[in-house]
UniProtKB/TrEMBL annotation:
NCBIfam families, sorted: aceE
Lineage per the UniProt record: Bacteria, Bacillati, Actinomycetota, Actinomycetes, Micrococcales
Annotated signal peptide: none
Ranges for domain Pyruvate dehydrogenase E1 component middle: 495-716
Domain (Transketolase-like C-terminal): residue spans on this chain: 734-867
Protein name in UniProt: Pyruvate dehydrogenase E1 component
Record field: catalytic activity: N(6)-[(R)-lipoyl]-L-lysyl-[protein] + pyruvate + H(+) = N(6)-[(R)-S(8)-acetyldihydrolipoyl]-L-lysyl-[protein] + CO2
Role, per record: Component of the pyruvate dehydrogenase (PDH) complex, that catalyzes the overall conversion of pyruvate to acetyl-CoA and CO(2).
């Protein structure tokens, strides 16, 4: 499409006759024929005829552009709009009060003594979009169908607080606690939709842009999953996601649209607030974002509804018989539309309508005020209601509603449509007066002038007819929205026997910890009562992790079933899809997998039905790739297990740099809701999983809203049975003594985690046999949990200086342990270094720092100096410095074991799949 700037645009830029039509009469006859066909035979038959004609045109070599967009007008014609079911004037009055209170709340938070910020303009422009939903569509938790899930646009949160204030859910003192969560504790509101910070109010965190759209898609999928598997009837629940047009540039916003179309999620509606602006400027100054999104969503298989113009345009469009106005609308770029809303009616007359004689004549009888009052569709109740109604009645497809609005609508000339409006947090006295007048708020000049930083909120009282109308509508729709409930139905945890497979070890067979975990998971899923609540989630690596055994029994969830002849149907572990499948398989799609994990892991609150998601992924592609999504999952108080399989920097052998994970535990440690373990053996995994389930759903832990992150490896070893007298408390808290050193001589302590524990045991034997050094080996199941415990002990001592300080758990465990400590893992040195400050002994770390590479495990471990002989040499160095072994022992060992030769490494084997 040809786009020009305002000053360069002329009538010559428009095609003659509208779209280059040289025979409008013939065109009209064809259009009339199509109308008659639709009227007589219906849309399905008309669609078939149109597809047949297009195919015929193609066979006759007629070059046709793919029609992915429609004219820049409303999808639903004025004549097809349903009657508005509410009292528009009443709804407008309290919508004005909400807009005033939302702006005043943010403005008061900018008092010079506070200055915590906020966003005024997003809700000002989107208020109609929300109010039509609140008054007529959004169903609360008390609705017989179970209620809807609404993902609110993050920057519009002041509007939700303002509505809750009118409903009586929040007080003025609460509004004055906006963004002051500690200093106004008890009367505090978080900046954005943060369930963790306001757990009875918000359900879905959305302000990390792009995560809301994909989480909404997978929430809609999760609703269907619950229904298809017979866990809960969600057939009358709808998912709404309110998004910004600038937000749609995030890859996550568009990258998962195909799932919603493939699974025919007609229980999902996106509402894209197209105010044509992102945070700093226009979304598409030279283009048209609504048209771009229409094409994109059409191509993805969605139902698209555009709400472009308000009712004031209807008469003009009806008079536009030759299409000149529509063509002008089509040709005008978004940058110009933004400018028009920042200017005046006279400016619009000259620079828009004045582009062609025909459109100039159309507007001739309109005053400048009339032209200025030609509203965008997103500010018209009737237009928005028609779109919402059509969306909820559409079947077989998800729907996106593209709604044109003005950012900062009604806030005055300094705000409306300005590039800087997103960052503007307060109003001048003149702004306040103008905004008050625009909204007709019964606040006097004197009240505003008394303290311009603290203009009054407005509430007419709960007995006012408008408030009675408002609350009645919410009662009829099932109660207030948003609202979150933490209660859930009872969940019976697995029988202790379900853990036996991991506790008894692998006998004479070798099995990697990944396989030990998968075998345990399979038995947990077999548990008669608990098993159906497990939701395994794997992004196209099931066979890599040995989880193809789940295919024929648990099956892969697909609401459409499996309508093809599987190529591996004769195999025992054949691929099998089913509407009642338990395994969620999002494909090569870690972002979608975390979204599915979040939806399942919050079903206890969203639906009152606990699910236990178990997301198994390539370790490197977990927190590194989707850390922001895990942060949102933590905000939403997701519960479940995330399993970083094929973990470690040297264990994956041939995969190379981008697959070699040496740092994920550090990335995960930045998330306070993630409990991190690096287990060495299957029996450790069993105790950790059992403790995790008890914490999440046992009912006694003060903080059940956590995600357990376990790193597991693909290197096969003989999995030992649980030793007698195992220190289970040590396993769960982070460290226990695995094997004491033999004999006398110098003492040292070897701390190792995960796949490094066997190297430490090798080093223990070498030290005893070659150097007469007695080394104790400790299995560190969690460096991070030990660090968190140590920091907590220090903080307790800091806050209660008169009390006897608590000894960190790791120091308690190592009490009396002699000699220097050597800490090692298959991660970079920073991972074991997390505990250095809490260990009283001399401390040295061996780590796999730097980039990974492709090689054998033994060679890689020798290169990074983390293998058994490296542990021996480092221990001898520290012991020599303490005078416990001869001064030259370390140098002699270095030469004897050829520590500088990567081909001399011997720690590890070549088994296991990559």
């Amino acid at each position: 499409m040809h786009m020009t700037a305002i000053d360069d645009f002329t009538a010559a830029d428009l095609p003659a006759g509208g779209f280059g039509d040289h025979d409008p009469e013939e065109t009209a006859e064809w259009s009339e024929s199509l109308d008659q066909l639709i009227d007589a035979r219906g849309t399905e038959r008309a669609g078939f005829i149109m597809r047949s004609l297009l195919e015929r045109a193609g066979s006759r070599r007629i070059g046709l552009p793919l029609a992915t967009t429609t004219d820049y007008v409303n999808t639903i014609p004025a004549g097809d709009e349903p009657a508005y079911p509410g009292d528009e004037e009443t709804e407008r009055r309290y919508r004005a009060w909400m807009r005033w209170n939302a702006a005043v709340m943010v403005h008061r938070a900018q008092h010079p003594e506070i200055g915590v910020g906020g966003h005024i303009s997003t809700y000002a422009g989107a208020a109609t979009l929300y109010e039509v939903g609140f008054n007529h569509f959004f169903r609360g938790k008390e609705h017989p169908g179970g209620g809807d899930q609404v993902f609110f646009q993050g920057h519009a949160s002041p509007g939700m607080y303002a509505r809750a204030f009118l409903e009586g859910r929040l007080t003025e003192e609460d509004l004055d606690g906006f963004r002051q969560e500690k200093s106004k504790a008890g009367h505090a509101l978080p900046s954005y939709p943060h369930p963790r910070l306001m757990p009875a109010f918000w359900e879905f965190p959305t302000v990390s842009m792009g995560i809301g759209p994909m989480n909404a898609i997978y929430q809609a999928q999760s609703n269907r999953y619950l229904y298809n598997r017979g866990i809960k009837d969600t057939s009358d629940q709808h998912v709404w996601a309110f998004l910004g047009d600038g937000e749609m540039d995030e890859p996550e916003s568009r990258g998962l649209l195909q799932l919603a179309a493939q699974e025919k999620l007609d229980n999902l509606t996106f509402v894209v607030n197209c105010n044509l602006q992102r945070l700093d400027g226009p979304v598409r100054g030279n283009g048209k974002i609504m048209q771009e999104l229409e094409a994109f969503f059409n191509g993805a298989g969605w139902n698209v509804i555009k709400v472009v113009w308000g009712r004031e345009w209807d008469a003009l469009l009806a008079q536009d018989q030759d299409g000149h106005l529509v063509e002008l609308m089509n040709a005008t770029p978004d940058g110009d539309y933004q400018t028009f809303k920042a200017e005046s009616g006279g400016f619009v007359r000259e620079h828009f309508f004045g582009k062609t004689p025909q459109t100039k004549d159309l507007a001739a009888d309109l005053s400048d005020d009339d032209i200025w009052n030609l509203k965008r569709g997103g500010h018209d109740y009737r237009k928005v209601y028609a779109a919402y109604k059509a969306a909820t009645e559409s079947k077989g497809k998800p729907t996106v509603i593209l709604v044109k609005t003005v950012k900062g609508y009604g806030l005055g000339a300094r705000f409306e449509g300005r590039n800087a409006t997103h960052q503007m947090k307060k109003l001048t006295l003149e702004d306040l007066k103008a905004f008050r007048d625009h909204l007709r708020i019964p606040v006097t000049d004197g009240q505003l002038e008394a303290d311009p930083y603290r203009p009054p909120y407005y509430h007419p009282g709960m007995d006012a007819p408008e408030i009675k109308y408002l609350t009645k509508r919410r009662r009829e729709l099932g109660g207030s929205v948003p609202a979150r409930r933490g209660g859930h139905g009872e969940i019976k945890l697995p029988d202790p026997k379900a853990y036996d497979v991991a506790l008894r070890g692998s006998g004479k067979q070798q099995a990697a910890t990944t396989m030990a975990f998968v075998r345990l998971l399979k038995d947990l899923m077999r548990d008669k009562e608990f098993g159906r609540r497990v939701v395994p989630i794997v992004p196209d690596e099931s066979r890599t992790f040995g989880m193809d055994a789940f295919f024929p029994t648990a099956k892969i969830y697909n609401p459409g079933g499996q309508n093809y002849l599987s190529v591996d149907r004769d195999l025992v572990l054949a691929y099998k899809e089913s509407p009642v499948g338990q395994l969620i398989h999002p494909g090569i799609n870690e972002a979608g997998a975390v979204a599915a994990f979040t939806a399942a892991g919050t079903a206890y609150a969203t639906h009152g039905e606990p699910l236990v998601p178990v997301y198994v992924f390539y370790s490197m592609f977990g927190f590194q790739r989707t850390g922001d999504s895990f942060w949102a999952a933590a905000d939403q108080m997701t519960r479940g297990f995330v399993i970083g399989a094929t973990a470690g920097r040297t264990t994956l052998t041939g995969e190379g740099l981008q697959h070699a994970d040496g740092h994920s535990p550090l990335l995960a440690a930045t998330n306070p809701a993630v409990v991190i373990y690096d287990p060495a053996y299957g029996y450790e995994i069993a105790h950790i999983l059992r403790a995790g389930l008890e914490r999440m759903y046992g009912g006694s832990h003060p903080d059940p809203n956590v995600m357990y992150y376990l790193t597991v490896y693909n290197e096969p070893i003989v999995q030992p049975a649980e030793p007698g007298g195992l220190d289970v408390d040590g396993v769960l808290r982070g460290i226990y003594k695995l094997k004491s050193g033999a004999g006398g001589g110098a003492k040292t302590q070897l701390l190792a985690s995960g796949v490094a524990v066997p190297w430490a045991l090798e080093a223990q034997q070498i030290l005893a046999e070659d150097w007469k050094v007695s080394a104790d080996v400790w299995s560190v199941t969690s460096w991070t949990e030990l660090r968190r415990d140590g920091l907590a002990a220090e903080r307790d001592a800091f806050l209660d200086p008169g009390a006897q300080p608590r000894t960190p758990f790791i120091a308690q465990q190592l009490a009396g342990a002699e000699g220097p400590v050597i800490a090692v893992s298959d991660y970079m040195a920073q991972v074991p270094d997390q505990v250095r400050q809490f260990v009283p002994n001399r401390f040295a770390t061996l780590g796999a720092d730097g980039f990974g590479f492709s090689d054998t495990r033994a060679a890689a471990r020798r290169f990074f100096k983390i293998d058994s002989h490296s542990i021996v040499v480092r221990a001898l160095q520290l012991l020599a410095e303490e005078g416990k072994v001869p001064a030259g022992a370390a140098a002699e060992a270095f030469r004897r074991y050829r520590l500088d030769d990567v081909n001399a490494g011997a720690s590890g084997n070549a088994g296991g799949d990559a």
